[in-house]
Amino acid sequence: MTKIPEIGLIGLGTMGRNLALNIASRGVPIAVFNRTVDTTHGFVAGAGDLAPLIAPADTLAGLVTSLPTPRKIILMVPAGDPVDDQIASLAPLLSAGDIIVDGGNSDWRDTARREKSLGQIHFLGLGVSGGAEGARNGPSMMAGGTAKAYAALEPVLTAIAADYRGAACVAHLGPGGAGHYVKMVHNGIEYADMQMIAEIYGLMRDGQGASAGRVADTFARWNDGPLQSYLIEITARTAAATDPETAKPMLDVIADRAGQKGTGRWTVMDAQERAAPLSAVEAAVTARVMSARSDLRSTGQALFGGVAGQMPPLSEADLESALLAGKIVAYSQGFTLLATASAEEGWALPLDRVAQIWRAGCIIRSAMLDDMATALADDPARPLAFAPDFAALLQAHVPALRRVVAAAAARGLPLLALSGALAWFDTIRQARGTANLLQAQRDFFGAHGFERIDRPGETGLHGPWGDGQ
Ligand code: 6PG
């Protein structure tokens, strides 16, 4: 190591290692620290040609003193208490103007709190998406914090970010927790996207008797069309993979219980608090929770029987269309949540930029995000589902979504997210809904009052509900 490191990184787990290699591979000298010294040295020893650009630090103080001021240090430690613990040991070694970057999946409220508590030390909350491969070769990054802190990091972040036709997939989205908030919603949408894909897979497997190979071929074909996206691509690849132990398709040997680290659940809770619910993400989180309850599902199947009923015929084009329509609904809900949070928190989130930096590098990258960026630039206040191009897509593809949901119901197959997306679509095009009855019920049992359609604005009205009401 001959060059003075320009930046420091703490935490050499999968994401930290890959991000450090990415930084070094752009010619930026970096100092790294991990709480186990052996890990640090082992990492540098295995860095090959990049090793001369990576300085191992045995102590936190050693890392800090190796960096020029203002120091820039990226934390890649697990979200939650480890971030607070790391900041508590690092901050006393730093000076005013130094910058700590949290590149984990932190709760945005924690990020806002940490930024405030650090005072003269700058704090940037950086949502990093793209998994291990993205971290190594180019992630999508969502930054929140002061403009000054972002400006100091911008050259290196731009250098390591994913590239979409010459544009770096990184942006300063707002102050405090804004970056981690956008990453949280990204993950919520990721849950919905994944769940809807899994539902179509289930319909093919249990409704149409499709083999994993046929699923792989179908998704591979769809990846050449309007659904083109990383998640569709990896669905095809995982469905095509064979288990070396049993020679069966990998999908047929993997247990149907999904894990989750919490960002999807946070998104749903936050959305409900802001009265901007995302039915597709809610369904996806519910589906993951129910997937983990295999005991419950086995008992239920023994009691009620499994799939039953005839499977109405569905074309492959219907399945593709259903996914397209569901995807538009999920993203419309997600961007509406971002707009709501932006207004409530005073962030001025640039929604078109969010869509732009999601076009490459991140898990939800897809061809459609480019069109979404255009629609959001045109009118950020309008729900994406109402933008002319997306409204036309919904008009064209919702009939197929309706056929798919109906066929799944006839066969007894659950489509939590896709049927939720259809119900949402039908709700937003129902000018007169059914909450008049809810209001009557509320007034009946609790004298909560209601408004009349023929006397708008007049409140505190009650019904003639009979005895004692
Ligand atoms: C990404 C992913 C990444 C990670 C999630 C998975 O954008 O790169 O979202 O952050 O894979 O933590 O979350 P679950 O464990 O909750 O599925």
Written account of the structure:
With 469 residues, the chain is an alpha/beta fold. The protein has 3 domains: 170 residues, NAD(P)-binding Rossmann-like Domain (Rossmann fold), CATH 3.40.50; 245 residues, N-(1-d-carboxylethyl)-l-norvaline Dehydrogenase, domain 2, CATH 1.10.1040; 29 residues, no CATH class. Helices cover 55% and strands 9% of the residues. The chain has 20 helices and 10 strands. The strands form 2 sheets. Strands 3-2-1-4-5-6-7-10 form an 8-stranded mixed beta sheet, sandwiched between helices. Strands 8-9 form a two-stranded antiparallel sheet. β1, α1 and β2 form a beta-alpha-beta unit. α15 packs across α19. The model has no long low-confidence stretch (mean pLDDT 96). Bound molecules: 6-phosphogluconic acid.
